[in-house]
């Protein structure tokens, strides 16, 4: 609904009213960190999604205002705001999908790993609440460093006895969104026709776009592919620097988060062939978590798809990213069990 336009009129989804047909299932989505830079536009985009019937907006403060504002939009879902830890249980109860953009963003000069000390604890406590109040929800972790926060979430769920690897996702969609945009610009093809898988993790060199598999195909020189790869890996930093201390990507991230949550909802609803890249528990490489294409279904992950044929440059990138990704995963697991 976000990417497509209404063919007959050319009007965008924004001008259509988001009423779903009677057969559309009831689906509750909870956003944790909903008053933040990502949380607010993500709340708006999820309010526009006709697959959502109930939208719970949770943050430590500020959510009554966001909820009151968003709730006036004439689309299907009812919107409720929840502020403060004592309301977290109510926000989560009955949720089908929980999206977590809670935590501090980067400032210039910081890596995603520099956020670990604050965000690891936030994700740990929020996931403990998910285990308690909505253990069967699909969990979309946006909070960085994703390479560590997803393993943290898995350990929290294991301890609570609720872990289901099919229901835990690190959101790497923004890397795909960026790869598509940058590729289309360089290859001079219609961005609407472009797809680029992005695998590995979600930080610096662990982000590995597979431009050799990009559609529409274009004959780009090796140097151009290398420059596109670097730009995709540094896309977050490009935004952090441009915002000069006012945070990291929020609007493009909200778009990416909305795309991924929409894919999760479609999968839950039984729509066939819903495939998105995500950082999930994986046997695609020797690492326990890895981002690759994932087929989504009624139980979350239906199938983790393999990497396909890689160019020599991508093979090198894959080997180069493994040590950093491994250590970020281990750091998360160690923190969760400390
Ligand atoms: P922000 O600071 O604008 O908003 C974060 C929100 O989280 C705030 O409203 C804050 O009150 C809330 N929060 C803090 N502790 C909380 C708790 N215990 N429970 C509920 N809410 C809590 O930050 P922004 O820009 O929205 O970024 C959020 C996170 O998303 C950061 O960790 C950032 O690094 C990450 N991010 C991830 C991306 C990805 O591709 N996965 C891309 C961009 C950002």
C-alpha Rg (nearest Å): 19 Å
Largest beta sheet: strand ordering? 3-2-1-4-5-6
**Mean pLDDT, all residues:** 94
What's the tally of helices?
10
Ends apart, CA distance between termini: 43 Å
Shape: globular
Order of helices and strands: EHEHEHEHEHEHEEHHHEEEH
Helix content: 40-55%
- Count of DSSP strands: 11
Based on secondary structure, the structural category is: alpha/beta
Bound molecules: 1,4-dihydronicotinamide adenine dinucleotide
Assembly level: single chain
Largest sheet: 6 strands, parallel
Measured by DSSP, the beta-strand proportion falls in 15-25%
Please characterize this protein's 3D structure.
By secondary structure, the protein is of the alpha/beta class. The chain contains 10 helices and 11 strands. The chain has helices at 39-47, 63-71, 88-92, 116-133, 146-160, 173-187, 222-233, 235-243, 251-268, 312-337; strands at 28-32, 54-59, 78-83, 97-100, 138-141, 168-170, 198-200, 207-209, 274-281, 289-297, 300-304. It has a 6-stranded parallel β-sheet with strand order 3-2-1-4-5-6, with helices on both faces. Strands 9-10-11 form a 3-stranded antiparallel β-sheet. A two-stranded antiparallel sheet has the order 7-8. Helix 1 (39-47) crosses helix 9, helix 4 (116-133) runs parallel beside helix 5 (146-160) and helix 6 runs antiparallel to helix 7. 1,4-dihydronicotinamide adenine dinucleotide binds next to helix 4. Residues 32-33, 35-39, 59-60, 101-106, 115, 119, 122, 126, 142-144, 146, 171, 174, 202, 247-250, 253 line the site of 1,4-dihydronicotinamide adenine dinucleotide.
């Amino acid at each position: 609904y976000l990417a497509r336009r209404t063919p007959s009129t050319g009007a965008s989804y924004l001008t259509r009213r988001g009423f779903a047909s009677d057969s559309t299932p009831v689906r509750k989505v909870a956003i944790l960190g909903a008053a933040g830079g990502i949380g607010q536009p993500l709340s708006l985009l999820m309010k526009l999604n006709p697959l959502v019937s109930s939208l719970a907006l949770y943050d430590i403060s500020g959510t009554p205002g966001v909820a009151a504002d968003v709730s006036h939009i004439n689309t299907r879902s009812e919107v409720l705001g929840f502020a403060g830890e004592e309301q977290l249980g109510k926000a989560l109860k009955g949720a089908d999908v929980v999206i977590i953009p809670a935590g501090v963003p980067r400032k210039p000069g910081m890596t995603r790993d520099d956020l670990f000390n604050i965000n690891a604890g936030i994700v740990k406590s929020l996931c403990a609440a998910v285990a308690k109040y909505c253990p069967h929800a699909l969990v979309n972790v946006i909070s960085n460093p994703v390479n560590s926060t997803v393993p943290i979430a898995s350990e929290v769920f294991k301890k609570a006895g609720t872990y289901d690897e099919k229901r835990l996702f690190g959101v790497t969609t923004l890397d795909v969104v960026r790869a598509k945009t940058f590729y289309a610009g360089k290859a001079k093809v219609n961005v609407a026709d472009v797809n680029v898988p992005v695998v590995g993790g979600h930080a610096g060199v662990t982000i590995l776009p597979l431009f050799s598999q990009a559609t529409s195909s274009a004959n780009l020189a090796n140097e151009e592919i290398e420059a596109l790869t670097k730009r995709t890996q540094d896309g977050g930093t490009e935004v952090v620097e441009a915002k000069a201390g006012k945070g990291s990507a929020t609007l493009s991230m909200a778009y990416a988060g909305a795309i991924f949550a929409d894919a999760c909802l479609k999968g839950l609803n039984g729509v066939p062939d819903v495939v998105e890249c995500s950082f999930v528990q994986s046997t695609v490489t020797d690492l326990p978590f890895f981002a690759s294409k994932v087929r989504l279904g009624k139980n979350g992950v239906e199938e983790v798809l393999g990497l396909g044929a890689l160019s020599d440059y991508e093979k090198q990138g894959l080997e180069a990213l493994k040590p950093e990704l491994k250590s970020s995963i281990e750091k998360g697991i160690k923190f969760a069990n400390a």
